[in-house]
Amino acid sequence: MMVPSDLPALAQTLLARLGVPAATTGARLVISPVDGAVLGAVDNTPPEALDALIGRAQAAFLAWRAVPAPERGALVRLLGEELRRHKDDLGQLVSLESGKILSEGLGEVQEMIDICDFAVGLSRQLHGLTIASERPGHTLRETWHPLGVVGIITAFNFPVAVWAWNAALALVCGNALIWKPSERTPLTALASAALLARASVTWAATTGRPVPTDLSSVVIGDARLGQALADDRRVPLVSATGSTRMGKALAPRVAARLGRSLLELGGNNAAIVAPSADLDLAVRAITFAAVGTCGQRCTSLRRLIIHHSVRPALMARLRTVYERLRIGSPLVDGTLVGPLIGADAYQAFEQALEQARAEGGVVWGGGRVTVPGCEGGFYPRPALVEMPGQTAMMREETFAPILYAVGYDTLDEAIALQNDVPQGLASALFTTDLREAETFLSAEGSDCGIANINIGPSGAEIGGAFGGEKDTGGGRESGSDAWKAYMRRATNTVNYSHALPLAQGVRFDL
Ligand code: NAD
To answer: Residue limits of the Aldehyde dehydrogenase domain (predicted)?
Structure first.
């Protein structure tokens, strides 16, 4: 396939098909990382407009919470149908705006569809517990209720899937939403919102009542809008995805008003390769995890901890594979590595490699690749770096395709290295030794929210809870019981007897 030469025209065509009016006149320019072209221009949301919007979202919440959950699920089912219908268009737009390869752009939309399916089922399963009461003639149970307006702040690298993780669950849980997408990727956000608006029209026609006005909206702007959401008492939950720096700035603001935050922050993910590892499988898994999405996933593999006995063989194989990586336009079939998001990301990539050399590293790869027709894009050659040990700079997340390798002798040493970073998102062990695998997954093993065996740290399915510990923020989203973060829990005691026994045998005779 040829690279489409007029990306702005393609973006506007896709937007029109997705139901977004022409986005060409606003103050905020949207730059494609593919070739540096201006894809469009959108309006910023003024801060005072956000204030009024939160008020309207709260009114929408009061109406939506009274709609039975399975009916709320029907709206999310319709959103899933719109996404199925427009998967190609939205997937392409994701590639244009975020620079990920087309297959990953489509995969991101598939992830939205998957979470919609999950949430539809969930809409009939928002159940609490019935608990044995210590008092005769009493029942004890818990119920789950909608929370209110949920603020959703998202990062550029998963411009739409992270919204869908939050939105699908929050909507079936009975909440209203306000989404502040990354300022780098507003077009895909407007497109996703347009699909939800279409689903809302169908829902209204089917149920005979409208979806409350401003149940879900998008605000466009930078960190200041995120801060306004963080500070507003009418937003009981702020779910924020992005860098640890962002989380550390945002969380104290939400906490200052005793609100809740759900944080999905940076990772610094490692894989351990043990002597018994299947190296064929490990090479493929490591390469996908390290260079996929151009190293711009929160779960990207950044550190390789290799047993000394297999280190030379594995590194030689990885160098061979790295030399063959197809780097180029993400819109061309067969490309494996696309561009970084922009010049600042490329500069951070170069600086990290310089620092690695200063700390004793030997670097293979690095540098900028010129892609014909995409000269305005920042295409890095993924780097493999042999380090003398886990030095200071390896403890930081550089959002680029750099894979540092260190050696180890014992599994305890490898696990200690894996855990000795501030972040705690995703981890992996390649081994065919059951004892090693179970040790890694035990309480004394990986300290991450995600711990895998014989599969890389990236590429999670929506069925499990997603998130990490320490500087990754502690939040859990997506599957399992992550929905509970979007609801409030009430404990109910009902006395159906004629007596009034007090708990713990307390006597209070009048
Ligand atoms: P970023 O932190 O620069 O921005 C993320 C979002 O936060 C944007 O919408 C931004 O406008 C907003 N923001 C920034 N500062 C803010 C503040 N002080 N208050 C409120 N909002 C603020 O991140 P990015 O460059 O877009 O994305 C890359 C980062 O996101 C990486 O660190 C990556 O690991 C992380 N990430 C984490 C996950 C996860 O699930 N753990 C998923 C995707 C990305």
So the answer is: 29-489
- What distance in Å separates the CA atoms of residue 127 and residue 138, rounded to the nearest whole number? 20
pLDDT digits (tens, 9 = 90+) for 5-17: 799 999 999 999 9
Name the pLDDT band for 478 (thresholds 50, 70, 90): very high
266 pocket-lining for ligand 1 (C-beta < 6 Å): yes
Cα 410 to ligand 1 centroid, rounded to whole Å? 36
pLDDT at 5: 76
- Closest Cα to atom 43, ligand 1: which residue? 298
Q: Is 499 exposed, middle or buried (0-12, 13-18, 19+ CB in 10 A)?
A: exposed
Q: Report, at the CATH architecture level, how domain 269-466 is classified.
A: 3-Layer(aba) Sandwich (3.40)
**The complex's ipTM?**
0.98
Q: Is the pLDDT of residue 24 over 60?
A: yes
Query: How far apart (Å, rounded) are the C-alpha atoms in residues 212 and 225?
Result: 23
CATH 3.40.605.10 fits 7-265+473-491, yes or no: yes
Q: Name the residue among 39, 378, 36 with its Cα closest to residue 186.
A: 39
Nearest alpha carbon to residue 102 among 340, 287, 335, 419: 335
Q: For ligand 1, say whether the CB of 223 is within 6 Å of any of its atoms.
A: yes
